[in-house]
């Protein structure tokens, strides 16, 4: 069942992130919100004309149960750490776009060395207010991979991101041909 377009009443007080500024905003229990995007672990919702993001760890505030089955692949020993990393990054979405950060072309490099991982990534703009959240979301997801103890994310802006970095999947989702 798609949640997009559905109005939900917040069941408990919850901290959200105002999009695109990245400011923290608390919503009180009983507040009605309209879901605009439910991708990955997070939910973009409209509340009183503002777009806010509710993290997946707060899905119960929306009356939803946990989605642990979505991460079953992390226990699959036939998958390498880099493949698991890519799958995890593909669960991180820009709250304003229906495209994950991997297909947006924001990941420049993944380097795995034993129990540590180094990621070189960028943002669509150096002034992106959601940048710190997106970086922390990627880091949190990579820490979920068994055996990964350290994750370093290097935010780079050279070369600058442009539309040529979009995957075919992203181009289709954004109607860019």
From TrEMBL:
Domain of life: Bacteria
InterPro entries associated with the record: Fe-S_Maturation_MIP18 (IPR052339), FSCA_dom_sf (IPR034904), MIP18-like (IPR002744)
Pfam families: FeS_assembly_P
Ranges for domain MIP18 family-like: 87-152
Entries under Gene3D superfamilies matching the protein: Fe-S cluster assembly (FSCA)
Name recorded for this polypeptide: Iron-sulfur cluster assembly protein
Organism: Candidatus Synchoanobacter obligatus
Source organism phylogeny: Bacteria, Pseudomonadati, Pseudomonadota, Gammaproteobacteria, Candidatus Comchoanobacterales
């Amino acid at each position: 069942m798609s949640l997009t377009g559905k109005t939900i009443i917040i069941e408990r007080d919850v901290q959200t992130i105002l999009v695109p500024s990245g400011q923290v905003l608390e919503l009180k229990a009983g507040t009605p919100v309209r879901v605009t995007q439910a991708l990955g672990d997070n939910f973009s919702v409209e509340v009183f004309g503002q777009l806010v993001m509710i993290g997946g760890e707060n899905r119960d505030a929306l009356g939803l149960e946990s989605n642990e089955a979505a991460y079953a692949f992390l226990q699959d020993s036939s998958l390498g750490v880099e493949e698991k990393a890519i799958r995890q990054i593909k669960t991180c979405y820009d709250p304003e776009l229906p495209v994950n950060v991997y297909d947006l072309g924001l990941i420049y490099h993944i380097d795995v060395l034993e129990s540590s991982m180094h990621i070189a990534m960028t943002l669509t703009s150096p002034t992106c207010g959601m940048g710190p959240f997106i970086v922390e979301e990627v880091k949190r997801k990579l820490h979920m991979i068994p055996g990964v103890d350290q994750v370093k994310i290097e935010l780079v802006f050279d070369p600058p991101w442009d539309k040529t970095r979009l995957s075919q999947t992203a181009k289709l989702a954004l109607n860019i041909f």
